[in-house]
Fold:
Amino acid sequence: MLARPFDLAPTPTTAVPPRVELRDVALHYFDAKKETEALDGLSLSVRSGEFVAVIGQSGCGKSTLLSLIAGILSPTSGSVLVDGVAVNGPCRKVGYMLQQDYLFEWRSILDNTLLGAEIQGADMREARERATDLLARYGLGNFLDHSPRQLSGGMRQRVALARTLCTAPDIVLLDEPFSALDSQTRIALADEIAQALAGKTAILVTHDIGEAISMADRVIVLSRRPGRVKSDHVIHFATQDGLRPTPLAARGKPEFNAYFNTLWHQLDVHVEG
Structure:
């Protein structure tokens, strides 16, 4: 039986440890004047090969959650685990694609793609082959020697994706990777990224409900600050072949609007006067 859009789905139990797990995590920021609770009592898990989207109000701790998984930040309390091992710093298993592409203008497109591999001390011959293949796959094979300023915004984000995947991470974190793009480019790039990440474990942070529904296997809604898991929704589209539709095709499915309305109400969006 198909999951209804208004069903809240707990994380399925399995004998295999989750690929990513946060257990009762809190993160507090401190400055000279006050303490700010970004996250508090947040628990969630992501299975191997699952694509999870995280949505919530601005300031609820979505990007903070990714920084914890990436090992850039440490929790004030609670545990963050990757493959059952506590995260104590950046991990080669995890690739992180940020909102901005952060391409270096003095490096060619190919050299920008190789940056992560260089930092990790990877075999650069293999990395160069992988980077060249990725760029060709994303329609950038003729731009290897170009500089970033010669590319459009969508092309730059493709380079950023290739840079993230060049290190062959098992887990990919995406922090609003389409936020600076126009709507048409966003939707087209969502299709490409979904195809590139097929079979990988991925966590997407986004403000765009439609983006979350069309790309993810599950959508997690965070509460207002301090962020906690407010609800967890399995996303399923009925198809004749049983395969998940592309993000573009998913937007035309009858289930899409029902999921959208459910998540919109979960966000409790209102304008304060």
User: Anything to note?
Assistant: The chain has a mean pLDDT of 89. The CA atoms of residues 12 and 47 lie 9 Å apart.
